[in-house]
Design a protein that fits this description.
Layout lengths: L7 E2 L15 H15 L6 E7 L5 H14 L4 E5 L18 H7 L3 H13 L5 E2 L17 E2 L5 E5 L14 E6 L2 H11 L1 H4 L3 H20 L7 E4 L7 E4 L1
Parallel strand pairs: 1-3, 2-6, 2-7, 3-6, 7-8
Antiparallel strand pairs: 4-5, 8-9
């Protein structure tokens, strides 16, 4: 296609996952198809949200989309909602460890809007912060800004991305669909290093419970631009809407 190269701006957070190698030609074709749909929305700034159960593959898919879109000549910003949680030092002020508490209290949506979404939505703003509080080090990075080009594509992944507090910002909404038990299995396997023997319990009794509250209260799948069955990484399938 004779693409020009553009930049991909990443968060300074230490909570990083590498861009995966292509799992299959089938997956690469699907990523390209979704990326082209995103770019067809318009030539100005675009805000893309990627949601789904924990460990459904949101971050990896966001990286894959970013790679294709940046190769197509559009500057890309990558962010994850995990970089906009409330600091652990304040957790004594609220419940963050039950499923209900995690859903209600873990994320700082005021910071998401003030630091990231509002600046990217406003054509008068030329920079944004891709991270508020580092999830691992708890260091405050809200003063670290990244330039936002007039035609930048912001790709944000994270659970609860389509809650009413921030749902209005997205130009394109993606849901990665996996079964709840698969989410628990993948998440427990992924988080063994820091959660150890508690990993499965955390995913089943905190994250999955929170996500079921979200699905019941918000019904986010009704607003999606595309729903992808991501149960098998090498064989993702568009299933809706």
């Amino acid at each position: 296609m004779g693409f020009q190269r553009a930049e991909v701006h990443q968060s300074v957070s230490t909570w990083q996952q590498p861009c995966p190698v292509p799992a299959s030609s089938e997956r690469s074709v699907l990523v390209e198809r979704v990326a082209k749909r995103i770019l067809s929305v318009g030539g100005g700034r675009l805000l893309v949200g990627i949601d789904g159960l924990t460990a459904s593959g949101k971050t990896s898919f966001g990286h894959e989309l970013a790679g294709w879109i940046h190769s197509a000549g559009r500057p890309v910003l990558r962010a994850t909602l995990d970089d906009f949680k409330k600091p652990w030092k304040d957790r004594h002020l609220y419940d963050r460890e039950s499923g209900e508490g995690y859903y209600r209290n873990a994320y700082d949506y005021d910071a998401v809007k003030r630091l990231l979404l509002d600046p990217c939505r406003s054509q008068g703003e030329v920079s944004c912060a891709l991270c508020s509080i580092d999830p691992l080090t708890q260091r405050d990075h809200s003063a670290v800004t990244t330039p936002v080009a007039p035609d930048a594509v912001l790709i944000v992944d994270g659970v609860f991305a389509f809650r009413p507090e921030i749902n209005e910002y997205w130009d394109f909404r993606i849901w990665l669909d996996v079964d709840g038990e698969l989410s628990v299995q993948r998440g427990a396997d992924r988080d063994q290093d820091w959660a150890g023997s508690e990993a499965e319990s955390i995913h089943r009794n905190r994250y999955l419970v929170a996500e079921r509250i979200y699905l019941k209260e918000v019904e986010p799948l009704k607003t999606m631009d595309v729903i992808i069955d991501n149960s098998v990484f090498s064989s993702p399938r568009i299933t809706g809407p």
